């Protein structure tokens, strides 16, 4: 079973509380998603592999560490995942970015895929799928299905707010995918919204409602 890790750094908790408030403006919401994503990126990249490298300082030759250059890909689930990309890229600017477009049918709550555009060598990359919300888990599961169909094998899922129902479903469907979230909330309501949550992440990020 994949692990579900709540990243509860005080800076993340503080920023997430502002993000959740209904009176937070679109501008502030966007900035906060970006900042929290960067802080999460720092934590979820903890186990990136290092290798020895010999360097010359002004004083001496020394063997130090550098990233192995393992290829990374950040894959936002559209729309709301887009808000997390820049935060990740500020840490790993050379990462490639793939896109998976998906929306939830408001009646059935089932996800509908409308776009998949990925780096050609996605099968060789460590992938971070990013989406602020893991609610019923439908979108995340379909996104991972889509990636695996194209050969991807090394996938982590990073979100800001998760519902226990979605965590369970994603873990059951894809036990090899570790989940990282800034908060594990109480439950889903009858409309599939996370309680207390933060509302509709896409609409709040882009100001569409
Ligand atoms: C939101 C969110 C996730 C999905 C989570 O997207 O960004 O992708 O819902 O819900 P689930 O776990 O129940 O699938 P939405 O469908 O609102 O699309 P949008 O980002 O285009 O607004
Ligand atoms: N998608 C959202 O944007 N918010 C929720 O609470 C659930 C799904």
TrEMBL record:
One of its GO terms (cellular component) is cytoplasm. The keyword Magnesium applies. It holds the Pfam family UPRTase. Gene3D superfamilies: 3.40.50.2020. Uracil binds at residues 194, 199-201. It catalyses: UMP + diphosphate = 5-phospho-alpha-D-ribose 1-diphosphate + uracil. Keywords: Allosteric enzyme, Glycosyltransferase, GTP-binding, Magnesium, Nucleotide-binding, Transferase. 5-phospho-alpha-D-ribose 1-diphosphate binds at residues 79, 104, 131-139, 200. Belongs to the UPRTase family. Catalyzes the conversion of uracil and 5-phospho-alpha-D-ribose 1-diphosphate (PRPP) to UMP and diphosphate. PANTHER family: ADENINE PHOSPHORIBOSYLTRANSFERASE (PTHR32315), URACIL PHOSPHORIBOSYLTRANSFERASE, CHLOROPLASTIC (PTHR32315:SF4). This is Uracil phosphoribosyltransferase. It comes from Streptococcus bovimastitidis. The gene is upp.
């Amino acid at each position: 079973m994949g692990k579900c890790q709540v990243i509860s750094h005080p800076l993340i908790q503080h920023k997430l509380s502002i993000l959740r408030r209904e009176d937070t403006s679109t501008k502030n919401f966007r900035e906060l998603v970006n900042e929290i994503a960067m802080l999460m990126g720092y934590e979820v990249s903890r186990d990136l592999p290092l290798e020895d490298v010999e360097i010359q300082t002004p004083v001496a030759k020394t063997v130090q560490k550098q990233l192995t250059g393992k290829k990374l890909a950040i894959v936002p689930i559209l729309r709301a995942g887009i808000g997390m990309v820049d935060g990740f890229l500020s840490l790993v600017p050379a990462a490639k970015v793939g896109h998976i477009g998906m929306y939830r049918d408001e009646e059935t709550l089932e996800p509908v895929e409308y776009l998949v555009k990925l780096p050609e060598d996605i099968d060789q990359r460590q992938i971070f799928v990013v989406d602020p919300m893991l609610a019923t888990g439908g979108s995340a599961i379909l996104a991972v299905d889509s990636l695996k169909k194209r050969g991807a094998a090394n996938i982590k899922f990073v979100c800001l707010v998760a519902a226990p129902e979605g965590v369970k479903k994603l873990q059951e469907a894809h036990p090899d995918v570790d989940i990282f979230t800034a908060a594990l909330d109480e439950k889903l309501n009858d409309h599939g919204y996370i309680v207390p949550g933060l509302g509709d992440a896409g609409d709040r990020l882009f100001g569409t409602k």
